[in-house]
Design goal:
There is one protein chain. By secondary structure, the chain is α+β, with helices and mostly antiparallel strands. Helices cover about 30% and strands about 35% of the residues. It is elongated. About 0% of the residues have low confidence.
Length: about 300
């Protein structure tokens, strides 16, 4: 069902996204038929997204981001501040937020979701003041983000991630970290620490089997195996979110975490390096309204501090 009165939509397009060069005329026509007056802005760098929202907030009733997960996360804080609902046209490689919210990968079908006007309030995670929807990580994923060739990513999509991941694994090493939750600190030797806000990340992996993007919590896991190649045996559990069953994986759920490392290490949020340790992670419950199909929430399970099987 279309809106009874026309609303103004600010559409921000990332031409560097994997599908960012596809014609958008059919998309604009679909949105217009759905009752929206659309203004299109193109950005070349992710920080421009927030600036465009702040600059044009009084000229729009909603914001639509055409891009990948990094583009959408870059819009989060400005959208939160403006109070404008956010629409997603998934033009990226992994599109994990769209997957979490059941937004169709077909661009016209995604436009229909926005045109129907159904919204869902979801949590936003922050690390050192930078927003993320899916996951923020230190270690393997950050090394992957730093070493991923943009041309390889655009040409081969998720297979490009796999090729780069193999290169990262061949030279990976453990690092020391301190994880603090509710005043309690534990020291770990790990290959990766990931803190999830949503459900999906990394092209369809699941942060934790009961995680939801509106459950008001962050889900942490730490990879503490001696032999990194054991990851090959664990891949299926990462796809289902049951990796916490392995004794080499430490898990925890809370609303805030602090992570320190001996030397500053980069932090990857939704595919982009945005800050470095020491890192303060926090969840902002139901902080933003997203155009998405309404779904029933699965019941979550609250786990004790740094649960380790």
């Amino acid at each position: 069902m279309s809106r009874s009165s026309r609303q103004r939509a600010l559409l921000l397009r990332n031409p560097k996204a994997r599908r960012g060069q596809e014609p958008i005329t059919p998309l604009l026509q679909r949105l217009e038929r759905g009752g929206l007056n659309v203004t299109v802005e193109t950005f070349e760098a992710l920080p421009e997204i927030a600036r465009d929202i702040v600059r044009l907030r009084d000229l729009a009733d909603l914001v639509i981001v055409c891009g990948g997960d990094g583009s959408v996360s870059s819009a989060a804080l400005a959208a939160m501040e403006s109070g404008l609902p956010l629409g997603i046209i998934p033009m990226g490689t992994a599109n994990d937020l769209a997957r979490t919210l059941d937004i169709p990968m077909d661009l016209l079908a995604a436009a229909d979701v926005i045109a129907r006007g159904e919204t869902r309030r979801i949590d936003v995670g922050t690390v050192n003041g930078h927003a993320f929807f899916n996951v923020a990580s230190i270690g393997l994923s950050s090394e992957l983000a730093q070493g991923l060739d943009p041309a390889l990513k655009k040409r081969f999509g998720r297979f490009g991630y796999a090729l780069s991941a193999m290169r990262v694994l061949t030279r990976a090493s453990m690092f020391s970290a301190k994880i603090t939750e509710k005043g309690q600190t534990i020291e770990v030797e790990t290959y990766q620490i990931a803190v999830g806000n949503g459900r999906h990340y990394g092209g369809g992996n699941v942060v934790e089997e009961n995680a939801e993007i509106d459950d008001g919590h962050l889900d942490l896991y730490s990879l503490e195996m001696k032999n990194l190649w054991k990851l090959a045996l664990m891949l299926r559990s990462f796809r289902s979110g049951t990796h916490g069953a392995w004794r080499e994986v430490r898990t925890a759920r809370c609303v805030e975490f602090d992570i320190e490392t001996k030397k500053p290490m980069p932090v990857n949020t939704d595919g982009e390096i945005v800050t470095a340790t020491p890192a303060h992670f926090k969840v902002h419950p139901q902080a933003i309204s997203i155009f998405a199909p309404v779904v029933h929430q699965r019941p979550g399970i609250v786990r004790p501090f740094l649960y380790h099987r």
